Amino acid sequence: MSELKELREINVFGMGSGNPQDVPERIWDLIRSCGALMGDPRLTGHLPPLEWQLRLPLPCGEELIPALEGAPKPLGVLVSGDTGFFSIARRIGASFPGRVRLFPGVSSLQIMASRIGESWANVPVVSLHGRPLEGAEGAIRQTIWDKDRCAVLFGEGGGVRDQLSQLSKLLKEGVRGWLGWDLGSSKEQLFSGSLEELANSPYTGRLCIGWFEAPRGGFFGEKEWDVRRRPLEDLELERKDRIPMTKFPVRCFVSSLLEPLFGSNVLEVGSGTGALTCHLGRLTGPGRIFSIERDLEALDLASRNAERLCPVGSVRFIHGEAPVRGVELEGPFQRVVVGGHGGNLKEIIRWSAGLLSPGGRIVIPCLLLSSFQQAMEELEALGFKTGFLRVFPGEGRRLGGEWMVQGGNPVDIVWGDVV
């Protein structure tokens, strides 16, 4: 009877690695007291059949919640690891408020930390279990940006090798760490080395977790002093005569109108030299710039500048002419900036407006009066709250022992806010 008093309608049990020796006998007693039991056969297989207990498969996706509702109560659900740690427990609790009790187990993160003699407290964790790395890049950047270490939950088999190889391209060179397979089981193995070395480690198994340490400059080079502390000067950029470049004063005005940028996803139409691209890439932090450029020579130039002047992975360049079709842009975007438009400004504004998130802003630097007029008219027609600045930029230059002001082209900087 005491066991039944502890149970609720739905009870989620963390089974750690699935090794019966890791689960206290009291928890086994509670599991045996449930009228029905759901879980992976790898976990339920440790329990002999019980005549009073119905064994049910644990469905995934949209079938999960109806299956839980329709099962006899009290219901037990077996999950690997800790019930609050990248498992379905969170979804179950949110779907059945007040009807669920969690019984935590030992997570793979805790076992990994004990194996390498580290503390698992405050370690950021990314889950790639059953999830391709493509499409998860934004979550990875947000989670481990400016951190000294991280853990990654992988899946099983040879797919882990592919994910490690992809991570080595996503992160700055020099990341090292450990890879643990089937921790807490009789098949446990632990490897150490660089991401490339770990990708070639000889073992595969059921479950895998990685523990990685950032190189001196951070996982993305975000701790390099020049990325954080000073603005990007024109002379630092590689240039070509016919490829346009947004000059330093205009970059400063545009970026200020796009603030706050840290953590934002920004869509840029027209990379050009990549001057504004790199300027924004140094301000968005764990966010990302998606920059579209139709000219291959300009795209190559902008890519080289970004590779040298921005944190790793800050910019994704896309070859094409806006509005681009059939390309996954990983929106919505908090900010859009339209530079080059090839005479197609109104259509680009309409297209990019549909990619903006609530509260988002679009900024359009205009050299031509016709572009200014089109931008204002289209933004107002779409219901944006609009404004503009007319800027006459000038930079100080040395002339012998004196200073002079060298003027640049006047620019109308138009913006519109989603309301």
Automatic annotation (TrEMBL):
Ranges in coiled-coil conformation: none
Listed GO MF terms: protein methyltransferase activity; rRNA (adenine-N6,N6-)-dimethyltransferase activity
Pathway the protein contributes to: Cofactor biosynthesis; adenosylcobalamin biosynthesis
Alphabetized UniProt keyword annotations: Cobalamin biosynthesis, Methyltransferase, S-adenosyl-L-methionine, Transferase
GO BP: any one term: cobalamin biosynthetic process
Alphabetized PROSITE patterns for the sequence: RRNA_A_DIMETH (PS01131)
CDD domains: AdoMet_MTases, Precorrin-6Y-MT
Gene3D superfamilies: Vaccinia Virus protein VP39 (3.40.50.150)
InterPro entries: 4pyrrol_Mease, 4pyrrol_Methylase_sf, CbiE, Cbl_synth_MTase_CbiT, Cobalamin_biosynth_MTase, rRNA_Ade_Mease_Trfase_CS, SAM-dependent_MTases_sf
Domain Tetrapyrrole methylase, first and last residues per copy: 13-199
NCBIfam families, per database record: CbiT (TIGR02469)
The name this protein goes by in its record: Precorrin-6Y C5,15-methyltransferase (Decarboxylating), CbiT subunit
Taxon lineage: Bacteria, Thermotogati, Synergistota, Synergistia, Synergistales
